[in-house]
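Translate sequence into structure tokens.
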Amino acid sequence: MNDPTAFLSDGFTSLASISIIGASVSGLLAGIEAAKEGINVQIYEEHREIGVPEKCDGLVSARGIAELGLVPPSNTIQNRIKRALFFSPSKKTQIEINAERQNVLVLDRARFDKFLAEKAASTGVNINVGRRINEISQGPDSVGVLLADGGTFQNDIVLDCSGYESYIRSGESATLQGGQYLVYGRWFESATVEVYIDPEKAPGFFFWVIPISNDMAKIGVAGSAVNTFKQLDRFCLEHAAIPIRKIAAPVVCLGALKQFVDRRVARAGDAAGQAKPTTGGGIYTCGYGGMLAGRAAALAIKNSNPLELENYEKQWRAKFGREFRLQLYARNAFAKMNSAQIEDLFQMIKSSDVPQRISEESDFDMHSTSIIRALGLSRVVRTFGMLFSNELKSLQFS
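Result follows.
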């Protein structure tokens, strides 16, 4: 590496630097937290415009955003969701959940990411758009990054927040194929999210409709070996929807990586698999990961102790580990169910007080634990039978 940076006797560079790969929610929040501590932060974003292409539907709770220390500007909020409708494979059974108490927002992700970028820049973060990092190499006292344009830099710490590509490269996991359309239509209600369960058309996942106005919505589908555009085109025909934009958007929902930190390099956000296993949503959980990673990286540099970076992983797992394990058990069980079994599950839930209890008790961000409480553990174990009863029994929900 051709780098003039001088190294101190403790192995840290005199410039105390962090490079962050990716300028999405996790990367920008990591940069903000580190820059607050006076650390030199460089963010490298491969796209020429932050927030584009928009591959996230932007569904998040106001509480989750507040925990990230953010107050999103009004022009970043596209809608507020008041209820959710879940449709069985036959569409003959619907389950309605009142979502008003959960205060769920639909964000314009392109504008929201730009809002975060402005906040990061004002904090002292240097953002480099249109620059891709091709290689990371760790030495005993530093981390080198090689850019696609030939630039090379030495850093104390590198945070990989580059998204699902890094998650796939980890070798531990893969993503589900996914697609997202922005459509004009009139079949939906402006404050109602729709979820369609169909293991034949969307094995292992589902279709979704997230309205942003009376006649515009974000629709999507994901699943294992799914031709997403073909399925969404068919969905549009069935609902007389007119596509305005089409995007391929792989979904990270197969669980967090076994290890986030490797010496002076840490993954956060989708790169670490920090999106929720049940829905693939990750603004809150990925953003929280970036926030913790940025704080830990800054402390590691200030205290001249790279081992402190590992505290980030411990803190994230302490907050989300059990919830993610439960969500992963639930999605794995769901992926094994056929249409008839799912129809039976819908009938069981609809004929009970569970929808009301979920409406009153569920937490949008930690929904699996809340739903288990509402369903009752014994009912869940009966429903999923041999699939995951031992694992479910090992978790505490008091």
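Note: Residues 323-394 form one domain.
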